[in-house]
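Hi Q.,

Before the meeting this afternoon, I wanted you to have the alpha-D-galactopyranose prediction in hand. No need to reply - just skim if you have a minute. The sequence and ligand are here:
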Amino acid sequence: MIPAARLEPLNAAYERHFGVRRREAYLIAAPGRVNLIGDHIDYNGLAVLPMAIRRHITLLSSPRTDATVRIVNTHSEFATRSFEIESGIAPFPPGDWGNYVKGAVQALADRFGAGRGFDAVLASDLPVAAGLSSSSALVVAAALAFVTANDIVVQSLELMELLAEAERYVGTRGGGMDQAVCLGAVEQAALRVDFSPLRLTPRQIPIDWRFVVISSRQRAEKSGGARDAYNQRTQECREALASVLIHLDLPAGVDSYSGLFGEVGASQLLEAGDRVLGGTLRRRFRHVVTEAHRVSEAEAAMADGDLDGFGRIMTESHASLRDDYDVSTPELDEIVEAAAAEGAHGARLTGAGMGGSAVAVCSDETAASLVAGLAARYNGQDQVFVAEPAGGASVTAL
Ligand code: GLA
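Predicted structure with the ligand bound:
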């Protein structure tokens, strides 16, 4: 059952913009995510542990019979966008929200050779550019609107991989974590995402653990200012890998981070990195190796219900993202410290960093006081919330 409160405003906006709704319509909901551990390693092919959250981009979408896509955003900050589906859809100017829609549609049109458009209205309770993956939720929602409009049957793993690639339309050389968790998340669980090949493994979250998200109020625009810094990190990781591979005596065919992990233990890899690399590349490599190791450690702590251990690993991850990866900000550092002072077991920036949000872990008992304490210190109640683990994207025929 779709709550009327969710549908009514969309229906009203639809009728206002497009006139009476066509008979065929779909309600599409795509969740945001908070990454619990494993940042800036998905594009290196290494496993991560995000969780979808009960905050969504919601589309009311109706297929058209021609190749036009029209999409109205109920947030006044974002103007209506429309375009024609064709080969080589030209992007809107850089940073335009409509490019996420174009990226999704282009990738699916290329893959499936289909070209029927849709009229859609969008509502969202997911903060934008807050490190909670509103952009990938938009890509997924637009993709599902196109899939329903064109009666496409696609395996969900294929769709996840396709959309990771599709999002690169905006110019960010991102990994595949966000699209995978948005489509494949399971209620009450975190999701281990492995790559090449893509595999999803739900990990039960102990029922008395709570994850609190705190916004730094600094926007982290993946298709805007943060894009170059992000892409530079991916390049540095490739360079570091290439140097380490040359210097290690490895079996033929080992040419990736995951291949390297299969052959050499984390401590030997760190030694190799220290020996072979200097300066920035040494620190980037150290982050990748230690963060990948922390993902496994954190999974074990979660399985054991070891809240202290999990929190400690999160805080170590933050230090690594701050000191070795240079993607934190003074505001995020301060939030992480404040979270500890207010009773969290650990905290870290989440997602790409350079603004956005932090996530803290605590027990059910301390969640209310942690939220109140952090809201009082900083940003007000709307910027601090308990993130509930949610299931993946859904499509409901109305
Ligand atoms: C962004 C990207 C992801 C991932 C994170 C950092 O959210 O979309 O693929 O690289 O940054 O972990």
